[in-house]
Amino acid sequence: MLDKAVAAALSSLLLLGAAAAHADGAQVAELVPVNPPTMYYPAPSSGPAPAPRTVAPSAPAAADPTEKTGPAELEDGWEGGPSRDRDGKFAYCAIEGRFDTGHVLMIARNVKGEVNLGMGIPGAELPGAEQWKVKVVVDGKLTRERRALAPKPDMLVIPNGKDEELYTALMNGKEVVFSSDADRMAFALKGTKKVLTDLKTCVEKAGAVPPIDTRTKKVAARPDELPEGLADLLKAAGVREFKRVSLENVPKGERPADMAWRIGPIVGGIRERMVEEGSKLEDLSAGYVDAMKKRCEGGTPTASLSAVEDLPGLMLRTGSVDCALKEGTMHVSLTFFLSPGRLFTILFHEAQEADTGLANKVRDNLAEVLRRLAVNPPSAQPSAGQPSAQAPASPATAQTGKP
Questions:
Q1: Taking each helix axis from N to C terminus, what angle separates 356-375 and 228-236, rounded to the nearest 10 degrees?
Q2: How does pLDDT run across 215-269, given as a tens digit for each residue?
């Protein structure tokens, strides 16, 4: 159950439950989940690999190795789904599973059928400029010799190109072993028949599928935290303290946001939708605001919208909606942006009348961060709902009190 303060804020946040709409009233299609696989790694690619470098004596080793002789066991189940590039276009689908040794096994597949295998190694410090010769063996029968890369210090990725024989072996096998000159790691393949079938379907349908999740424990391990990229965006906007608000007790069709959070006295949220070809931010944002105004039942609604900014990497617009009630005025600040890949995103922050300035400051800082990201995009390609933001030079800090 939500505490009373949060429940009160969310009761007014239901203003935002109105569906974003086109000018002609057509409802926007649902987007893929805003919480994709937690560990980012490169999309599968069959492009030429860089020339291998000499392997250092300290080749990658499993962090905190145990004495167990058998393969690492899956702790619960698999989770994942589609990932999109920074323009909002479908890129690939990926799944990951956590094992009792602390490692994470990851599998990604793209529309060409190319596959990457990845291993998260907590505490590892792998040099990104090197490559390692790695042997992949399934059930002691099928063997592949590959080269592994380290896109992150605690992550090893093995590109495989298009290899349906290997993919089928992973679906039907009992154990996969990764071995190099310095280390050996084995994973028990549990539940891969279903999850890799679902992964292939996810790719064939360009991500238009429900989340892939075979876990039995559905409660998030860190319920008060937001996904890393979204948290980075808020931090870049100067927000220092925020807590995720659970929407699990709200039916999916009635949720005011894909994800919500609290910043002191205000409540924020994000909605993302793929829109039709040729959709314009001016119409999308105006339609959304009109729908919000209609939800101001028993009150007097007012709204304002800025001009649309045509930036190199996105279209941007800000605004606000007020609902004047007998009990006081509810204010919602709005940040809209539309990517070239037709991903329409709404960031909003709702406040009581006394905290209008704080909600607007967060909105304005977010807009400034997005302007800078549009001009100087990060090198990593974020997934949907997880914009990767670098801290801006100097937007005003939005603390958890009044500005």
A1: 110
A2: 887 544 455 678 777 888 888 888 878 888 888 777 776 777 888 998 888 999 9
Q: Which two tokens stand for residue 36?
A: 């994709």
For the segment 375-393, the average pLDDT, to the nearest whole number, is 40
Question: Residue 44's pLDDT is what?
Answer: 52
Distance CA 118, CA 136 (A): 12
Query: Would you state the pLDDT for residue 297?
Result: 82
The partner residues of 263 in beta bridges, in order of sequence, read 266
Tens digits of residue pLDDT in 300-311: 999 999 999 999
Coarse DSSP helix, strand, coil percentages of the chain, rounded to the nearest 5 percent: 20, 35, 45
The secondary structure of 234-263 as a DSSP string is: HHHTT----EEE--TTS-GGG-S-SEEEEE
CA distance linking residue 273 with residue 283, whole number of Å:
14
- What pLDDT is stored for residue 174 in this prediction? 95
Contact 347, 21 (CB under 8 A): no
Residue-level pLDDT at 374: 81
Q: How wide is the angle at C-alpha 122 spanned by C-alphas 116 and 124, nearest 5°?
A: 85
- H or E stretch at 29: strand 29-30
Q: Which residues of 31-63 are buried (b: 16+ CB within 10 A; e: fewer)?
A: bbbbbbbbbbbbbbeeeeeeeeeebeeebbebe
What CA–CA distance (Å, rounded) separates 212 from 198? 7
What is the reported pTM?
A: 0.52
> Long-range CB contacts (< 8 A, 24+ apart) of 269-272?
269/13, 269/16, 269/347, 269/348, 270/34, 270/230, 270/345, 270/346, 270/347, 270/348, 270/385, 271/16, 271/20, 271/345, 271/346, 271/348, 272/31, 272/34, 272/343, 272/344, 272/345, 272/346, 272/384, 272/385
Strands (E), 100-192: 104-109, 114-120, 132-138, 142-152, 155-162, 175-179, 184-188
